[in-house]
Design a protein that fits this description.
The complex is a heterodimer of chains A (338) and B (170). Chain A is mainly alpha-helical. Chain A is built from 14 helices and 2 strands; from the N terminus they run H-H-H-E-E-H-H-H-H-H-H-H-H-H-H-H. Chain A has one domain. A two-stranded antiparallel ribbon of chain A has the order 1-2. In chain A, strand 1 and strand 2 form a beta hairpin. In chain A, helix 6 crosses helix 7, helix 6 packs antiparallel against helix 9 and helix 11 packs across helix 13. Chain A is globular, with a radius of gyration of 21 Å. Chain B is mostly helical. In chain B, helix 1 packs antiparallel against helix 2 and helix 2 runs antiparallel to helix 3. The chains are: A mainly alpha (338), B mainly alpha (170). At the A-B interface, helix 4, helix 5 and helix 6 of A face helix 2 and helix 3 of B.
Chain lengths: 338, 170
């Protein structure tokens, strides 16, 4: 560990967090603008040109709002819960490969953690602990609606984690590695896994939407039934942190989907010639996926809770299992595995 | 060497303090959270011992699955708060006695039996990697692995059958 490595690491951390914060702010703007367009409205257009300063205005408003902590709440956990939701969403992206560039006479791997040989397992570990913030927020508020929302969302997240985990297996088998860098490399040699594993890709998208509690699976926040779900008692910046997590998770899920199934940072002809284009290519793919997620929210009505559980356990999980078996069989027949 | 030592003692402190916190907290949710910190710190220990696979599995299984269910049960039963005072009066002296015996035995084994001066054998390349674990699990330990799978499957089916029965009666 020389000084250069420390500087490199610190710069990468700051850039990643800044990118996620700006991404969060402008994702809220993009979503409002796109939803408005889908519904034949204008959307935010008063703060700055085209309403571009709207996220700043929202942030300022939330900072000056009064922070309420309910009398009967468990104060320590009530304050801890928003922090516990934000952290997993932020640390997932450390293992995403972004290619490497030569700068100042040294080769810099743009990814934060470098090439981790258990990258996929890291993602699964972090997503599996992201449920705590929501459960604890629901419990510590000491409110029936919050508690119900928290339990609902954790049941949903645990159920869909299985299908999500099996959707990871397809790319892992095709690349015969748990390292994300190797998965991207395998896609640059073969073709995008979305083409070779269309069912896996679909399962991943559906399970990921449920995992991040987005429409049409936004049961935890069903306003009509639960007022607002697990964050009903939160206000001000603590509420903003839940929103931050929700939108950051959207970005994170899109990044993982792009890396596993859409070739990651690699783009034929472009990244081979200009390696520094890698992060921008990933960003372009992520933007397409985010557009699809927002589009789905504008299009589909919310599913009922029992339908959600049926879909997860009785449809997605068997198909995911079958997909893994078929992939293994085909790979064996083609002689790709011994 | 020095950063390793600092990491080790920092983590050891976290592990011990969270374990004591688990035992002493009167609120079951706080006890569960202490156990969570304990598991996470142990996962970091595995990372320091060059077993990243084990570390990630530790977090996924213990933190992500088992402790979530623990928290669920605690919250659904509403059994967060413990009644003041010990439940079993003989428990405390007995546990102190057993703890002292364990401490003496551990100290004896460490100072008289083990060779403290000998440096540990170096870790071979690829030790604890997913490939190595997969190879061992599906070749030398295939039979125990399959037996455990069947056992778990039977337990799952059993749980479903038991809950179905009560529902039909109700």
């Amino acid at each position: 560990m020389d000084a250069g490595m420390w500087i490199e690491l610190i710069v990468k951390v700051i850039v990643l967090i800044a990118a996620l914060l700006v991404g969060f702010a402008y994702l809220t703007y993009t979503e409002r603008k796109l939803l408005a367009r889908f519904q034949n409205r204008y959307g935010p257009n008063r703060a700055g040109p085209f309403g571009l300063l709207q996220p700043m205005a929202d942030g300022l408003k939330l900072i000056f709002k009064e922070e309420l902590i309910p009398e009967q709440a468990d104060k320590l956990i009530f304050i801890l819960a928003p922090i516990l939701t934000v952290v997993p969403a932020w640390i997932v992206l450390a293992v995403i490969p972004l290619g490497s560039i030569d700068l100042f006479g040294r080769t810099i791997n743009l990814s934060l953690a470098g090439d981790l040989n258990v990258g996929i397992l890291y993602i699964m570990a972090v997503t599996s602990i992201s449920v705590y913030g929501i459960v604890l927020a629901g419990w510590s508020s000491n409110n029936k609606y919050a508690m119900l929302g928290g339990i609902r969302s954790s049941a949903q997240m645990i159920s869909y984690e299985l299908a999500l985990g099996l959707a990871f297996v397809g790319p892992v088998m095709m690349a015969s590695s748990l390292s994300l860098a190797r998965i991207v490399e395998a896609q640059s040699q073969l073709m995008w896994f979305a083409v070779l594993q269309p069912i896996g890709f679909l399962i991943f998208l559906v399970a990921a939407l449920a995992e991040i509690n987005r429409a049409p699976f936004d049961m935890p926040e069903a306003e009509q039934e639960l007022t607002a779900g697990y964050h009903v008692e939160y206000s001000g910046m603590k509420f903003a942190m839940f929103m931050l997590t929700e939108y950051t998770k959207m970005i994170v899920v899109s990044v993982i989907a792009a890396t596993l199934y859409l070739g990651g940072f690699h783009m034929p002809f472009i990244t081979d010639r200009w390696p520094w284009m890698g992060p921008f290519m990933l960003l372009a793919k992520v933007f397409v996926l985010l557009f699809v997620i927002i589009w789905l929210r504008a299009t589909l009505p919310r599913v009922r809770y029992d339908q959600l559980m049926q879909l997860g356990w009785k449809i997605l999980l068997p198909i995911a299992f079958l997909n893994v078996c078929v992939t293994a069989g085909v790979m064996y027949l083609l002689g790709m595995i011994a | 060497m020095i950063p390793d030592l600092i990491l080790f003692f920092g983590l050891a402190l976290v592990v011990v303090v969270s374990a004591v916190g688990l035992l002493l907290s009167r609120n079951a949710v706080y006890a569960a959270l202490n156990l969570l910190i304990n598991f996470t710190a142990i996962a970091v220990f595995y990372l320091l011992l060059e077993a990243p696979f084990l570390a990630m599995i530790q977090i996924t299984v213990y933190n992500g699955a088992i402790m979530v269910l623990f928290l669920f049960v605690i919250m659904l039963l509403g059994a967060e708060r413990l009644a003041p005072g010990p439940a079993m009066p003989y428990q405390r002296p007995l546990s102190i006695l057993l703890g002292v015996i364990l401490l003496f035995e551990a100290a004896y084994a460490m100072f008289f039996r083990s060779k403290l001066g000998v440096s540990p054998t170096p870790v071979p390349a690829g030790f604890g990697s997913p490939e190595a674990i997969g190879q061992t699990l599906f070749s030398s330990y295939l039979l125990p692995f399959e037996v455990i799978s069947i056992l778990l499957l039977a337990a799952m089916v059993g749980a479903i059958v038991l809950t179905m029965k009560t529902r039909r009666r109700g």
